[in-house]
Amino acid sequence: xxxxxxxxxxxxxxxxxxxxxxxxxxxxxxxxxxxxxxxxxxxxxxxxxxxxxxxxxxxxxxxxxxxxxxxxxxxxxxxxxxxxxxxxxxxxxxxxxxxxxxxxxxxxxxxxxxxxxxxxxxxxxxxxxxxxxxxxxxxxxxxxxxxxxxxxxxxxxxxxxxxxxxxxxxxxxxxxxxxxxxxxxxxxxxxxxxxxxxxxxxxxxxxxxxxxxxxxxxxxxxxxxxxxxxxxxxxxxxxxxxxxxxxxxxxxxxxxxxxxxxxxxxxxxxxxxxxxxxxxxxxxxxxxxxxxxxxxxxxxxxxxxxxxxxxxxxxxxxxxxxxxxxxxxxxxxxxxxxxxxxxxxxxxxxxxxxxxxxxxxxxxxxxxxxxxxxxxxxxxxxxxxxxxxxxxxxxxxxxxxxxxxxxxxxxxxxxxxxxxxxxxxxxxxxxxxxxxxxxxxxxxxxxxxxxxxxxxxxxxxxxxxxxxxxxxxxxxxxxxxxxxxxxxxxxxxxxxxxxxxxxxxxxxxxxxxxxxxxxxxxxxxxxxxxxxxxxxxxxxxxxxxxxxxxxxxxxxxxxxxxxxxxxxxxxxxxxxxxxxxxxxxxxxxxx
Amino acid sequence: xxxxxxxxxxxxxxxxxxxxxxxxxxxxxxxxxxxxxxxxxxxxxxxxxxxxxxxxxxxxxxxxxxxxxxxxxxxxxxxxxxxxxxxxxxxxxxxxxxxxxxxxxxxxxxxxxxxxxxxxxxxxxxxxxxxxxxxxxxxxxxxxxxxxxxxxxxxxxxxxxxxxxxxxxxxxxxxxxxxxxxxxxxxxxxxxxxxxxxxxxxxxxxxxxxxxxxxxxxxxxxxxxxxxxxxxxxxxxxxxxxxxxxxxxxxxxxxxxxxxxxxxxxxxxxxxxxxxxxxxxxxxx
Lengths: 591, 285
Known about the structure:
The complex is a heterodimer. By secondary structure, chain A is an all-alpha fold. Chain A has helices spanning 3-10, 31-48, 72-89, 109-133, 141-158, 176-199, 203-222, 225-235, 237-250, 259-283, 292-304, 319-341, 347-366, 408-431, 434-444, 446-451, 456-482, 500-510, 516-531, 539-553, 562-568, 570-573, 575-582, and strands at residues 389-390, 393-394, 399-401, 404-406. In chain A, a hairpin with a 2-residue loop joins strand 3 and strand 4 (404-406). Chain B is globular, with a radius of gyration of 19 Å.
């Protein structure tokens, strides 16, 4: 990894804009005092979680017990503990031996971010208690103590001296097995955090979880530990991929009930379709606002040939044939829509694809034998899609493997995981090839791309068709997971993902042109609406607000593409050559 | 100065190329021949229609009348087919793929000389790996040739101006062209960079690629070119060796602004420019 990468990774923390890079800290205090203040604040916050914060169990999670933190208190406890370790890891002059590895950069930004995260989580909890129970009077002294202690921590952290960013010192060499063990441990931890997030039983806990995880992740990168991990995963690519896959496969086995497995199957479907859309939007730069129609084509095709009693075609294809038929139908649909529309550029393409998406839904709603030929049962859709049976393995029943049990949804989860892995493979291979480079070239400058011998229309049609096929592939599994397909699943915008608007949001929010970006974006966009039910009517408002904030502070998405990272944050990463590069735009615009 | 005999085979022949934008004729019945091993200069005052003529040659515009022939084949007015046939170009205002790396930019230039489709990219067989390796080797070679080897992993947008110009040339050369069209390759360069570019253009010609160059820097033109054509107000005014052109009174008049019969007025030049800008917008969309 080049020093430049280090610099970028070290600067990605969300807090780095709020904090002046050089000069004096916001609050003038001697450095040692500031560190002691931060440490004491964090310790006090930690201890306060062992006190009751409220008097009644009416607030979920039971925050009334002395000596036994519960619910949101556990999040504050975690945040405070992490802050404390960071303070110790960066304690003057060189950090406590044995803890120094927690902050290789030696900067205090990580401490500041963690203190801010703990404060946000704690104060959010207190406000949520007051809001739900009707007034601050419902807080116990422990709650006040927690709030004050978290504020003290942040005050101390703000007084910590700023140290300029510099390249990370080289990591201590570890034996290969130890590095692999670290990767495995990180994935285990990630799985634990993820299952905790999905398993959060009420909205407040999930919000607190999101706040804390967000700040902690930012702190991880600000402290340089993130860059260390990136180096490690790059060195052991195969191991990392295997670990990711094993983690994903193990997930359903950590679940006792089907509840969360169903959620994660839906996340996978959503994520896979988002990744397909990423070919069209992220690589080729074609704004497709009707993408969900391709998912619909795949799902309807699979439903029609599934042998469902409600299907108008009374045929039952084996699953592999259904998948191929669904993908092929989507491919044909993609080419039929793409061929006339891809001659348009920019906004016009967006409007036309939006129209085609709606046409699909309305047409399917009308093919009921009354307004049109009888094919899809109109608005009633095709229910009772039978469970899959592949090589005698019935997906609809429980299977026991020794002491482990695979529930029906776990079966579908594993099937969908296979397709997600397939789409990831297709995306990475297509993106990193002659065709993929041509797509990016078209996105960058179509005129120059054609002057390089690229047949713009043909390449765009390939991107469109590939995207459609991948969505159709996901659709065939979706039909079986949901047991039912109805036209209303395939709208432009709706409260339940996947729909075209959410798919696009997942790609842009996650990070265009990357693989992990849409996966993470889809997970967040699925979980946030599902967990924020308590906001009711304000759900979409909060969602919109979150999107605006993200686009303001991180326009390149959560997981930035290397290129886009440079594009948006050039001023802060590489001021020299960029200034030269901007000069060209002043020349006469011709050709 | 190198001279080449006019007896080598023609690479590019433009016959009666006329381009009209509505009622305005930007290029009127221009004939031009570029022969193997030649560097041909195309000069003229601003708004004379040089870039419009270039765009007609490369298929970016469909000429209203006339044909363009490349090595005995009439070129279809489609940019990608023109490049496929063997004509590569650079742009007056640099049009690199700004957010791709230097190497990727040159690899995109290899597009017409490689065949690997989507399926072979997905399967990654040995043929695919071989082709990728070959492309990368050729691109590395071209980067070394243009002096950009050290910058291969930089983003194109982060290169200094002169290197961006050279990268555009490297990208164009990647399609192994028989003819290279350069649109004001030294615009905005300092004298040192201009001299470097002269050396680069000569080296390209010595490798067997004919060059047609639009330029305002007369020293550059007269140092390099075997043959010079002057466009004024969309028409070819004079053509010949640099010496002939240099001495021609009409050329001097056109550049220094001495009135003569049919000299382009300011208003007319502005009109041509506006029409070209309009057409450029249309192609951009």
